[in-house]
Amino acid sequence: MTPTGTAGTDRARPVIDLHTHSSVSDGTETPAELLAAAATAGVDVLAITDHDTVAGWDEATAAAREHGVTLVRGIEISCAWRYTSIHLLGYLPDPGHRPLLEELARARDSRATRLERMVERMAADGIPLTYEEVLAQVSAGATPGRPHIADALIANGTIEHRDQAFREWLGDDSPYYVGHYAPDAVRAVELVRAAGGVPVLAHPFTRTRSGALDDALIVRMREAGLVGLEAYHRDHGPEEVAHATELAARLGLVLTGSSDYHGTGKRNRLGENTTAPEVLDAIEAASSGATEVLRP
Ligand code: AMP
Ligand code: ZN
Ligand code: FE
Ligand code: FE
Q: Which ligand 1 atom is the nearest neighbour of the CA of 265?
């Protein structure tokens, strides 16, 4: 069996999905609902990886116990790269590590002002939208992102799915796009390692990104302590998987697979891509042990 597959195709191997979002960032389900959905979908091991925050960990922990799901606590850090961002998954970091927490807080603060500026630009161009409507879509304490602008446009009847907002207004190359503070990718790898966590580059070759990420950056991230590449992901086709496989063999990186589930916010389904048990073992072994994999 390949490291990726459909949930439930081989009951002898656990279904391991290492990248999902809750309403603590831009997923549409609370952490407890996310864990319930994972159990229903037949996922045995789930990682919660909200953007730039660990605020969902406690609720996810209680729900994982309740539903008998093994929980990997993680984050997805947005990192500055050219005029857009690349995403770094950080598994099992110490949630009390000050430098990491300070960096995440700085990014979240900057995300709020950035959304307000995007809304100003859109409203000035006649798109029916106010910042208050956007704020109403962000759960208390959650990391605000562009999907919340899309949600406000769904709520006021302008569009029906987040996809439409991204196609027309929210893309990285849109005139309304405003960036936010984010750490450099190499520094983010160092921070996750310093916090005892395990950095894995999320969907490195996403096709929708303007301009391909260069291998030289991945080499520098590897030198800083990168452990893996998320090869099996909806945004990758066979060519991207082959590229990740070649790089991983050359640099000594593991390959992961995940859904990047966002509830109803994205079409990605839980367990649609999965990670091999041996790779999860390697991730666990590479962590400091400050944050453990929680088994029911
Ligand atoms: P931001 O964090 O504000 O830069 O927004 C990026 C987020 O938007 C990512 O987490 C993506 O999952 C989400 N996103 C990007 N494209 C789409 C899309 N077409 N439909 C729904 N969500 C999307
Ligand atoms: Zn997201
Ligand atoms: Fe991502
Ligand atoms: Fe994600």
A: 21
123 in helix, strand or coil? helix
Q: If you ran DSSP here, which 8-state letter would residue 229 be given?
A: E
User: Quick one: tokens of 139?
Assistant: 């759960």
pLDDT digits (tens, 9 = 90+) for 108-142: 999 999 999 999 999 999 999 999 999 999 999 99
pTM of the full predicted structure?
0.95
Ligand nearest to the CA of 23: 2
Ligand 1 interacting residues, C-beta cut-off 6 A:
26, 51, 78, 85, 145-147, 162-163, 166, 262, 265-266
Q: Output the CA 174–ligand 2 centroid distance in Å.
A: 18
Best of 166, 210, 233, 258 to mutate for ligand 1, by most ligand atoms within 8 A of CB? Answer: 166
Ligand 3 centroid from CA 21, angstroms = 10
Torsion of CA 263, 264, 265, 266, to 10 degrees: 80
Mean local confidence (pLDDT), 167-185 = 95
The pLDDT tens digits for 59-70 are 999 999 999 999
Residues 6 or more apart in contact with residue 240 via CB below 8 angstroms: 204, 205, 207, 231
Residues with CB under 5 A from ligand 2 (ion): 26
Long-range (24+ apart) CB contacts under 8 A made by 173-179 are 173/210, 175/121, 176/118, 176/121, 176/122, 176/125, 177/118, 178/114, 178/117, 178/118, 178/121, 179/80, 179/83, 179/84, 179/85, 179/114
**Distance, CA of 183 to CA of 99 (rounded, Å):** 12
